[in-house]
Specification:
Distance between the termini: 45 Å
CATH superfamily: Spore Coat Polysaccharide Biosynthesis Protein SpsA, Chain A
CATH topology: Spore Coat Polysaccharide Biosynthesis Protein SpsA, Chain A
Largest sheet: 8 strands, mixed
Strand order of the largest sheet: 3-2-1-4-8-6-9-7
Number of domains: 1
CATH architecture: Alpha-Beta Complex
Shape: globular
CATH class: Alpha Beta
Number of helices: 11
Mean pLDDT: 92
Oligomer: single chain
Order of helices and strands: EHEHEHEEHEHEEHHHEEHHH
Structural class: alpha/beta
Strand content: 15-25%
Low-confidence stretches: 239-248
Length: 308
């Protein structure tokens, strides 16, 4: 299942969490990748502890004690999540045709690496396939599939892989959003409305998200994403140090497990509408959350402490 020397390039995105970086490095030791790129955002000027934490996170890279080429992009000033991640991935694909991307809070099961590698090779000439996910928050629904993975339109980014030819289509400004037809999506009307709001907020830079821009880019290009039948990546970033995931989330804190080899491939590239909708409820907004958001009066939502 594993090569003696894991040759697929890996991009590791880090910031100010040395403990998380250390756990990911321990994880990588199991496969001993031959080449690791590291993109590190700089300290925030309004956070006095950031300078030391960012330095500590970068220093953890010294724990890579196997034969490995380490290529770094260290930012001295903070660029924010949106720009730092986007530019780091741009930089990665200036040098590589394809690869695996891990943030510092994403710890994959070892089977994720050959899973991603095999599919990067299998679909490298399939322009419709734009993204290979490692995490799966609906494995209760998909674990019994006869195939090792299925196809969806939503890119999950807690451990993922892609190609230069796909990433070139990233539309960070969400150009063309005003003309995008959300009714074409395999989602119910409330999910479509929620997604439209998120994309609009991203376009206006009311959030610091690169991931919604990537999601939009895939939809805009009628792209397809691979979803493993089981969850292959554990997110360890649900704490107060995180930028976005500051509170516990049982659905999104699933433990990772192994995907069996040899992989069983679907006979055709086709999105399952049922899986697509359930994935949206798990990864974006629950059905009850959507009903509360769009049906309850605003004052009542505020009374119950509902988030935007």
């Amino acid at each position: 299942m594993m090569e003696e020397s894991f040759s697929t390039p890996i991009l590791l995105l880090i910031f100010n969490r040395p403990t998380a970086v250390e756990k990911v490095i321990q994880n990588l030791r199991a496969i001993q990748p031959a080449k690791v790129y590291v993109g590190a955002d700089g300290p925030r000027p309004n956070k006095p502890d950031d300078s030391a934490k960012c330095a500590q996170a970068r220093d953890i890279l010294k724990n890579i004690d196997w034969s490995c080429e380490i290529i770094t992009l260290f930012r001295e000033k903070n660029m924010g999540c949106r720009n730092a991640v986007h530019e780091a991935i741009d930089w990665f694909f200036e040098h590589e045709e394809s690869g695996i991307i891990l943030e510092d809070d994403c710890v994959p099961d070892v089977s994720f690496f050959p899973f991603a590698t095999e599919l990067l090779e299998r679909y490298k000439e399939s322009p419709q396939v734009m993204h290979i996910a490692g995490d799966n928050p609906i494995e209760d629904l998909t674990h019994s599939l006869p195939e090792s993975y299925t196809f969806v339109s939503m890119p999950l980014v807690w451990g993922w892989a892609t190609w230069r030819r796909a990433w070139r289509k990233i539309n960070l400004s969400l150009e063309g959003l005003e003309d995008f037809d959300f009714k074409q999506l395999s989602l119910d009307s409330l999910s479509q409305k929620y997604l439209a709001e998120k994309f609009e907020a991203t376009q206006k830079e009311e959030n610091d998200s690169w991931a919604y821009a990537w999601y939009y880019s895939i939809l805009q290009n009628k792209g397809i994403c691979i979803l493993p039948k089981v969850n292959l990546v554990r997110n360890i970033g649900f704490n107060e140090e995180s930028t976005h995931t500051t509170t516990s989330n049982k659905i999104r804190e699933l433990k990772s497990q192994k995907v069996p080899f040899p992989l069983t491939h679907p006979e055709s590239i086709k999105v399952s509408h049922e899986i697509e909708q359930q994935l949206f409820y798990a990864a974006q907004k629950t059905k009850m959350g959507l009903l509360g958001r769009f049906w309850l009066p605003k004052w009542l939502r505020l009374f119950f402490g509902a988030k935007k």
